[in-house]
Design brief:
The complex is a heterodimer of chains A (393) and B (360). By secondary structure, chain A is mainly alpha-helical. Chain A contains 20 helices and no strands. Chain A has helices spanning 2-33, 36-39, 44-47, 61-72, 75-78, 89-95, 97-103, 112-116, 136-144, 147-153, 159-164, 167-174, 183-187, 200-205, 209-217, 220-227, 232-236, 268-297, 303-322, 331-383. The radius of gyration of chain A is 35 Å and the shape is extended. In chain B, the strands form two sheets. Chain B has a two-stranded antiparallel sheet. Chain B has a two-stranded antiparallel sheet with strand order 3-4. Chain B is globular and about 70 Å long. The chains are: A mainly alpha (393), B mainly alpha (360). Chains A and B meet through α20 of A and β1, α5, β2 and α11 of B.
Amino acid sequence: MTAVRIAPLVLAALAVVAQAAAQDRQAAEAAFKNSVHAAAGLECGSCHSGQRAGAYPAIPRGEIAVTCASCHSDAAYMHRFDPQVRVDQMSQYLTSAHGRALLKGETRAATCSDCHTAHAVMRVRDPRSPVAPRNVAKTCAQCHADAERMKLFGHDANVFTDWSSSVHAHALLSRGDTSAPTCSTCHGSHGATPPGVTEVANVCAQCHVREAQNFTAGPKKAIFDALGQAECLVCHGNHAIQPPSHTLIGITEGTVCATCHDASGKGVATIRNFRDSSDGLEAALRSAEAVVDRAEHAGMLVDSARLAVQEAHEQRVQSRVAIHTFTDQPFTEIVATGLEAARRAEQAGQSALEELQNRRRGLGIATLLIVGFLVTLWVKIRRLPVPPPLSDG
Amino acid sequence: MADRLAAWRRERVPLSAFEDVIREKTVPVHRHSYAYYLGGMTLFLFGIQVGTGALLLLYYRPSASEAYESVQFIMTRVPFGWLVRSIHAWSANLMVAAAAAHLFSVLFLHAYRQPREITWVSGMLLLALTLAFGFTGYLLPWNELAYFATRVGTDIMTAVPGVGEFVVRFTRGGPDVTGATLTRLFGMHVAILPMIATVLLGLHVWLVQAHGMSVPPKVEDSASRSGRRVSALPFVPHFILREAFGWTLALALLAALSAFFPWELGVKADPFAPAPAGIRPEWYFLWMFQGLKYVPAHVMSIEGEAMALAVIGLIAVAGLTVPFWATTERTRAMARWGGVAILIMMAVLTLLAYRGGAGD
């Protein structure tokens, strides 16, 4: 009797499970249809095995990387699709924090399908791919911005928010510069791991070559190394890196130099020189730009002025690079060149504005002549004889 | 010496018939006489457009890759190029204003009455041509504002049922505003429209000459009631000197506007860039642009934009045919008050557009 009562419930539960499984299968098939794997002629059975009643069981999380590697680590096989393709992903993955955790049996660690998706796998250069440059940070944030999940591993969950406020995120997401760094640029993709104290400078130097050269040749390198400081990070931070600004320099509160230096310490004269000269160049540049903008908006030719503004801009960038030597020269010389360019720009802008004034003066004289002609016309009109009334004819 | 020269010219270029007409021509004098100067003012500004336009043609290059740079070259390198371009742009705007003022003065003073029906129709067509000149010329500097305003402006035409898509494709020279559109609009601006305008303008001026200046019915009635004749000015030199006064004033205004408010070139158009905020057409199309914002998506199951364009079309047809239906005192009053209503509507919508109404 009891079995008769329970049977419909069991059947209903089985039906629900079967329906959910069918829906999952349909969703997976739909996603797979647009994937790079489908385009390469792969099928469900290429990854899944053990089909039962038309359905494939999911691949256990611990086996996903191995399954992917069965093709992606096979150079001979992968070259059939792309002769330039890399096949070191699995070996890289095994060196990563994710891969090492997985090897230890931590199945919550990220594996291939977490970043690339399970079925809708696309090429990295496809802008729809979750690992395309503009999407990487969001993909990493799925786990790394999850406070509860990160707490389990003792990680900070603010990294995505910090990076989003950085000059790098602005360049990548707002300006669309896909060469701007995202998570994988500094941490690696398959071999993702946080760079150590001694490695940070090498990571930043991948792009900031001259800053790194200046720093290495300068007096600070030895001091930072002795203190075990992570070079670039000390002044610029790691994820929330802000645009370079002259306001970072100084010994007043809020400046990065003040973190270590005070007004009585060694190197204060150099810091003051950096700040005062940078302030001067910044002010000269702004003033020149304002004049040139005004002249340009008034429709004047400002080609040479723009060129000089550009040169002053470049010198400002060079001076910021030179700051990484932590010595007065060549910084002072570069700033002087920048100031000269800014002065030339302002002068060219002023000349254009003077030319505009000359035009207006010329038109003022022309207007006076026109007014004189108008007065003459008016006098002539007033002196004309009064016309007779209109005749009927 | 002067007499001998005049005699020499008379023998070789006989213009006595024309001279007689000019000598005999008079212009009525009454309290609405100011309206007689508006047509001449429009003609003067048209002349300025032809002159400055011809000068701009010497340097302008009608292609997407060169148009902006060539206008920049005109404004910065060509001696007085900045002045010629600014006068051309300002004069275009003043010409639209003068033509509209001329139209409404003729409407309000009932100067379209028999036998001036064709004069009115040719004048209305000339106003439409003036607007077409404005529309086709707006894109030619190939700057951001002009590019997106042209895209929005041509998009509106797609709402016209049946022919809308074709008209838009024909105007743009393809599905979107591109270099082909620029070349096409340039062709219209400097060849097709001037050709039609010359014919219509010739007809219009000749008809004005043939029929003489119209005297408003009220002035005519009051003169006949008092038994006095309406005073008249000889066309030469009385009227023509007054016209010259107005034209010189317009020239001074153009020079001042060009010197103190030079027409800006803006940023070069980038078809792949998103449309910047605050895109709107020239002020004379603003009322229509703003009006369309208030139209609901559907009116009685008809697409709202199509319905609005139908209403504007009906107003245009009613305006074009005024002399044929406003033939009695009552219908003429209807035409006048209809004109007042349209003028108020245009002014209010334009004002709203400048103040940024309806989600602008």
